[in-house]
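Milestone 3.1: sequence recovery, worked example.
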């Protein structure tokens, strides 16, 4: 069980360790993942990368980090892809950005600047939850740059929060900003079918950060929650290949609300992973990548790049 949740536990440990600097091009995994950084006009984006070939950009969700994608990065790199997972501006180690950059449209602008610095012109883009919404907005803004769009877990912006999330909020608890151990446990139970077992001191240390910076977290939550309908209508290019993978037991955005009947999402076949919750790339990375690779290897429509 420990190895199954290694990326999530690593993410927690890095979060608790603060936002210290990481040296560029420092290998720190069995598959040769490196952690590097790109300096923009008023902040630094840190990112994880491994492999060579066609670029796959992986975007994390709200209050998450790039390390959640580590197993996916390794699996994609082994199959001949250049897999990149950034800490989105304001998250993880990419902290020195103004509060206005938490707007999803501004996240898209920052991502374009990030990719320009790396010299990446074409990519497959995938995201989880909030990252899925940002991926879709990026594909909408720069359709000539995106080969495919993938939702690894449901994206923010197409359906309501699940009943368990609503019930907690109605009772005065935001499960994404826990300030007590019971609230932290609630968050894990909403994210996972089988939550990882964490030591009490790890939970309490995480909670202390939520308490110390509570106003900041509340501000970010308020901004991001305004985008609960941002993909309705999606307004995506009709040629764009779509990949939709959803955990059957997702409690954040439950699968009965899956947008399989709504154009243009109906163009992509919805894959349902059993015994998986809101984070399929963490809870079952092997099957997630197997399904994703089958999609990426399909013949894709011819595109014309804008110059």
């Amino acid at each position: 069980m420990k190895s199954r949740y290694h990326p999530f536990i690593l993410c927690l440990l890095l979060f608790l360790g603060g936002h210290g600097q990481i040296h560029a091009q420092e290998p720190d995994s069995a598959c040769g993942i490196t952690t590097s950084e790109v300096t923009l006009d008023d902040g630094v984006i840190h990112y994880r990368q491994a492999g060579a070939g066609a670029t796959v950009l992986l975007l994390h969700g709200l209050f998450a980090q790039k390390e959640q994608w580590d197993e996916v990065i390794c699996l994609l790199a082994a199959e001949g892809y250049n897999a990149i997972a950034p800490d989105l501006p304001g998250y993880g180690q990419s902290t020195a950005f103004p509060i206005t950059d938490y707007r999803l449209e501004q996240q898209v602008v920052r991502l374009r600047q990030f990719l320009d610095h790396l010299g990446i012109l074409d990519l497959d883009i995938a995201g989880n939850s909030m990252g899925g919404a940002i991926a879709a907005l990026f594909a909408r803004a720069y359709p000539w740059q995106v080969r495919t769009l993938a939702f690894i877990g449901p994206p923010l912006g197409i359906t309501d929060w699940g009943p368990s999330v609503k019930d907690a909020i109605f009772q005065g608890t935001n499960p994404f900003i826990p300030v007590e151990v019971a609230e932290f446990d609630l968050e894990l139970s909403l994210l996972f079918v089988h939550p990882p077992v964490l030591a009490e001191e790890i939970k309490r240390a995480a909670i202390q950060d939520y308490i110390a910076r509570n106003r900041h977290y509340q501000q970010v939550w308020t901004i991001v929650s305004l985008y609960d309908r941002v993909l309705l209508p999606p307004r995506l290019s009709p040629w764009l290949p779509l990949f939709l993978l959803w955990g059957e037991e997702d409690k954040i955005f439950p699968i009965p609300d899956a947008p399989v009947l709504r154009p243009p999402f109906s163009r992509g076949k919805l894959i349902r992973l059993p015994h998986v919750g809101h984070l399929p790339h963490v809870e079952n990375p092997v099957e997630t990548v197997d399904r994703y690779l089958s999609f990426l290897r399909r013949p894709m429509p011819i595109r014309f790049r804008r110059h």
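Residues 282 and 300 are 27 Å apart (CA to CA). The longest strand covers residues 146-155.
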